[in-house]
Here is the input.
Amino acid sequence: MIVPVERRNTASRSPTLTLLARTPVGHHPSWIASHPSDKSLIYTGLEQADGEVVAIKYGRGGTVEGGDVVARAKSGGADPCTLLVTEDELIIGNYSSGTIATLPVSTSVPYILSPNPWTLSMPFEHVGRNKARQSSSHPHQIIFNPLDQTEKELLVPDLGADKVWRLTKQSDGKWTISGHIDFEAGGGPRHVAARGTTLYTLLELTSKLAVHTFPPLPALPTPLTSLFTLSALPIPDTMLAAEILLPEPNASFPETFIYTSNRNDPHSEGDTIAIFSLASGEGQPELVNEVRTGLNHVRGMAFGGDEDKYLIVGGAEGGGVKVFERIDSGKGLEEIAKLGADVVGCPTGFLWY
Here is the structure.
């Protein structure tokens, strides 16, 4: 289910979140992504054995609230959990089958231009330390290299293989593996972010932030440090890191902070968002704050609003959706609005529209 919500604020009352509509799309949509030149065109992946991607168009019939499913196609594998949309290509990461797939797309009918995705199987050498989660390749994110503006290199964190793959586009338009970064056994790379010449990788299975120098190919990255995303140690095996965000500095928030979410905290006040400062340098993040969310299983979160002032966060297993405002120059977060789990039951991903 794709659920548009609206944040409202007036001088006479506190900010609120309002449910605008629901759009049924199929089984377990998790990741959502918008087309770069038409933000009203949204894509999602259905996490099921026979993976599927769905295109949803908003604004038809003169309303922006409700969305219409306008196209469907096979995802080229099982359990698509990450999508990247370019002007003419949808790039899909299929978690359970360990495949990357692409489909041609457009901003007009039929939106998805072929029913047959091109696929690439990711290499897998051996079962990892966490046998339950690392028995095969599990691509968990597809992102353009944030340090390369040409959009000719993809980074693909592979939770199953303990690697981040580096893919480049060939002259025939297909993607191929051109390098990789290795991580500690059992770490489970999930998502990445980058700034300057440094790559930050969130390791889901060990709840760590790994830091590397990140030169252009073919040079090899160098590991700099690795630190936990929680201060209370030891971390229970059931806890998992989930999202990493690194908003660009701006006039309101000139300092650089990394925000990571942690899941399944047994604390009565729910999961935390860890905030790391880069005041000591790109390669030396420091954990400076941990904000209790009152949410359970914080999987997805996203910055938005003027100068990325707000952070929307969801509890996939309890608590609903909350909006936090950045305070203390970005070092802190203050809850300002929420929708209960009775309204939005299992939120996993967000887009600001």
Summary: Residues 17 and 290 are 24 Å apart (CA to CA).
